[in-house]
Amino acid sequence: MSKDGKTSSIDTKLKFTVIGFVGLLIIAVVLLVLVSKSEEDSRGAERFIRLSGQTGFSCEYAEAQKLYAFGEGVLKVTKERVAYLTLSGNEVFSTSVSYNNPQCYIRNDNCVVFDNDGYGFVVMDTEHVIYEKPTENKIQSAMLSDSGLCAIITDSTEAYGEVILYNSEGSQISRWSSYNSGYPICAAFSDDEQYFALSTLNTTGAVYKPYVRVFSLDYDNDSISAADYAVYSIDDTTILSYTAYIGSSLYAFCADRIYTVTNDTLVPLNDSFGTINYVRIVDDVIFTVYSDGVNQLNKLKILSSSGETIYDSEVGSDVNAIASNEDYYALSIDDRILVFDSTGNVISDISVDEDIIRIGFTGNNRLVVVSTGGVHTVDY
Questions:
Q1: CA 340/CA 110 separation, integer angstroms
Q2: Is the per-residue pLDDT at 31 higher than 50?
Q3: Residue 53: helix, strand or coil by DSSP?
Q4: Which residues have a Cβ under 8 Å from the Cβ of 46 and sit 6 or more positions away?
Q5: Is 145 exposed, middle or buried (0-12, 13-18, 19+ CB in 10 A)?
Q6: In the chain, is it the N or the C terminus that has fewer CB atoms within a 10 Å radius of its CB?
Q7: Phi, psi angle pair for 181, to nearest 5°
Q8: What's the count of helices (H) and strands (E) in the chain, helices before strands?
């Protein structure tokens, strides 16, 4: 073979060697990017859980959207029926309804399911249906106290709206019509259930005027009555979209500020927010999910009842669900579940493999997780 032939053979081998090396290099870079992305997506998570491998039951996505974590199981809410199911999917009890747009509010082991813009609601616990009631006007919202007092906010043909209070057996306590204060928006019971606060918005003037009305609840043997106690307002033209009691102190929340009653006046705390998205109270501590603007990451700020910041950090992009009980707060955001205790410490950080719809606390340090694939339990 000629010298030129040997050179050509060497050049060919060298060419294939270089091509092979470049190919391996490209594969290595791609793998590195994928691994880095995976690490970035789940960075900070203490552990990864495959939800399909957890205790529970599987169901279709459309079915999962009807399920709410409740007690030691789940509540299934449809237009025709409300049923309490075990974590194995077995029905414990149910009741028939006829709702066009059923909504569910859960507090501890009690819940109220109501027909939003409809005329009926039902109150249940984890053992049976407590009572079911029709309403004269369309229901806008409903909420419960710890002992089972129920507040129903409705439209009104003669006023801006009405608020009807029921005791734990379903007897009407009071019925208040808003003629001058504007549209009723939200309500809250004090911890000792001696007071009931209602946020309203008056839109008749040149600017919106928000109010918080407080009623005292008077207990006489087996009967309860409500009476006017106080009225508060602020100068801001905003909507006080959430009210809550921390101990005996009343708080009201708008889009970017938190107000509390000081010296018989509703005044803002020093902290300001871009946009407040979600609020929960856990053991007298305020958990607030907020963002600094459109398309910005969500942050979680935890405030003590005195307004001191305990925790303030970015947590992620998309909030899926929030749950709380007397001692803990859980936040499902992106592919992670963060669990905090009432002092603001992160006690669990879990990455999951399915999109989460709802979460809720159950016994033995467990969460009930409703995902697109079914119902699961997760230890935290």
A1: 23
A2: no
A3: helix
A4: 348, 349, 350
A5: buried
A6: N
A7: -90, -10
A8: 2, 33
